[in-house]
Amino acid sequence: MNEYNTNIANIDYHPLLESLYEEMHSRPYQVIDCPANITHFVVLSNELEKAEQFAHIQTLFAAFGQSVPAEDQINLQFETDTFKVRREVHIEFSAFTFTNLAVNEDDQPFERTGLSPLPHGWIESLPGTVMANFHLALQCIDENDPLLLSNAKKYFEGYRLVGSSPQNGDARVWTSFKLHSDGCGRFLIGNAHMSPSQIGRLTQRLIEIETYRILTLLALPIARENTSVLTKMDSKLALLTTQLAGDSNVSEHSILSDLTEMAAQIEAVRTQTAFRYNATFAYYELVLKRLNELREDEVSGHLSLTEFITRRLTPAVNTCKSGSDRLENLSLRIDRVSDMMRTKVELLIQEQNQMLLTSMDRRSRIQLKMQHTVEGLSVVAISYYSIGLVKYLIDSSELVNLPLDKPQLVGLSVPLIIASVWYLTRRVHRRFEKMDIE
Questions:
Q1: What pTM was computed for the model?
Q2: How far apart are CA 183 and CA 117, in angstroms?
Q3: 70 by DSSP, 3-state: which?
Q4: In a 10 Å sphere around its CB, with 0-12 CB exposed, 13-18 middle and 19+ buried, how is residue 168 labelled?
Q5: Among 61, 96, 146, 179, who pairs with 66 as Cys (CB 3.0-4.6 Å)?
Q6: How far is residue 55's CA from residue 127's CA, in Å, rounded to a whole number?
Q7: pLDDT tens, residue by residue, 245-256
Q8: Which SS3 state, helix, strand or coil, does residue 178 take?
Q9: Among residues 37, 42, 85, 32, which one has the least CA distance to residue 61?
Q10: Mean pLDDT score across all residues of the chain
Q11: Which of 71, 85, 5 is nearest to 40 (CA)?
């Protein structure tokens, strides 16, 4: 009896465990025998077009007698004895690779292509927008053949070649980075000492370099187009800043309106370009990584792929980087000027509030003085009416045995009444002051 328990069927597995394992094998390198002709298509696609592409490639499976897949996958492929088809789905594009193995060593490169075995009209009806398409011709070569380079030049229609010896000299690669008369780019790959799996990996690296190189450049026209727009906004922002700093009679409302409009335009441009710029930087990093994996040696008299691509691609990426940074910088500057404008408006509001409070305080003091005046008049008026009432009382009374007559009594009551009224008025006034303090 086995003393170790190897039954783990009842373990609670994470639902993504299997898919995470399979992700590492979703885009495996192909094994390619030499000679062979390969054609690669990069098709920009939205979700609807990707679904249409799946239905389209199902017809290709059926045409070659293959089991038709029922569900779409990141990587769909099939192969016969002489033909291989592969479709990979990426975030913004789909990649189709057609490998034609029905090639003789005596055939001229690019005489047949990876498209040759396809049914008539199939590639023309492929859904999506073709962003890159190029042929790769694989041939077995003698690395010591003195006519190797001159023979290679014949297949590129007179264009200047870029070439190198990758994989530490085990292969030769030539290309022109041009579209030829058939509307496709071309790579000529000479295999000196590489195995089918090694040539498959080299081919895949070259395909990815050319694919990502072209996708990297997608942001360059956008960066150039936005340059003039950003320059106008920059000049306008500088003018507004100068007005804000030097002219005390500027219209804050007008400046805030202009700043708000500029901020909206900048955000609109950022929304339209953010994905494209970020994709460009990501693709550029992939290009550099794949170039490094080639491990190139120079071919005398020719730029290597790494030298040519980095010499042309790096300035383009730097232009995109400059455009992206300029957008961010302009947005920050608009925010700072807007903050300055808001601060100025707040200071003006505070100054107006201070003036209003000062005016209210002045009016309060005047009102208080008027109130004191009215209080004095009120004492006189109340005293006057009180004295009149006392006089009526004295006149209506019969006073006998008094040392003073009635007019004298009225005269003596006047100061007493005035003092009493004043005293009572002050007590009422103090009571109200106390209530206000509490």
A1: 0.75
A2: 18
A3: coil
A4: exposed
A5: 61
A6: 10
A7: 766 666 777 777
A8: coil
A9: 85
A10: 85
A11: 85
